[in-house]
Amino acid sequence: TWTTEAFVEEAVREIRAKVGDKRVLLALSGGVDSSTLAFLLHRAIGDQLTCMFIDQGFMRKYEPEYLVKLFQEQFHICVEYVNARDRFLAQLEGVTDPEEKRKRIGHEFIQVFEEESKRLGPFDYLAQGTLYPDVIESADTNIDPKTGERVAVKIKSHHNVGGLPKDLRFKLVEPLRKLFKDEVRKVGRSIGLPEEIVRRHPFPGPGLAIRILGEVTAERLNILRDADFIVRDEIKRHGFYHDLWQAFAVLLPIRSVGVMGDKRTYAYPIVLRCVSSEDGMTADWSRIPYDLLEVISNRIVNEVKGVNRVVYDITSKPPGTIEWE
Ligand code: XMP
Fold first, then answer.
1. Minimal CA–CA distance to 248: which of 198, 217, 202, 294?
2. Which residues bind ATP (predicted)?
3. pLDDT exceeding 90 applies to what percent of the chain?
4. Residue 307 lies in a domain
5. Does residue 207 form part of some domain?
6. Nearest residue (CA) to ligand 1, atom 20
């Protein structure tokens, strides 16, 4: 029978045998796959592992600080923090089309990854959180004709876009390739990954950028980040976090009239999106209590400057998608 302990032991042995004394690079996103991967590799090869964390500026409030601190200070895993916020924002100037946004973010990610891995390198191996379902699709790897090994031609970041240049084709370390998602969670938990990461909601690679409809600006990012923080804060406080697949805020690039004190306001609406789902393929909008909706709405309108209205998305998937872009 499969046990996490046996899996970890075997994986550590395999990683050591494969990597030897070489250096391994890992693109850390803070999701459960890349975090579990980082813990596993760190256990196997310690400081031969370098994690690269690219901050594109579209993460949730306090998230980059939290992750870097957690990995670096609490678990002594080497994390290279890359602040690329301005670059990503510049790429999105004037862009409103959802696909174009994703494409530009993906390309910029590869660009930054390439530059930084040259600066920090050389590395012999790239660790990827490939899971069993990805192996079956495996369009992002080639087989090296000489060695028969899988070689990365794309970085399977959470963006899944953009090819790696020829001189940056790493050999791959993919210790999670036989696992399904629920097994990754078990492995992560068994090697000490904090529950907060093991059970966190999915978060799209392009992050808040695809939850701002229309153009992404620094002002809109700040507004959405604050609204999003309140949503999660209250959902957790009321004990609903683990019942939901996702709970988040979306900013619409329109304005409506409101009144605050004795003043007329003209500001953005925030959409509250809470869904339950098994796998993200289909989803139901969540019947969370009116009282909770009220608290979230009041806090967002009172605490987030630039927002004067909160609406609740009551569309399931299909026909809606979970995200708005
Ligand atoms: P949709 O919006 O298609 O989303 O119903 C289904 C699930 O996928 C997540 N999602 C992403 N995850 N990179 C990711 O890693 C992405 O680009 C991406 N886009 C959507 C979404 O949050 C939901 O859980």
1. 202
2. 29-35
3. 86
4. yes
5. no
6. 204
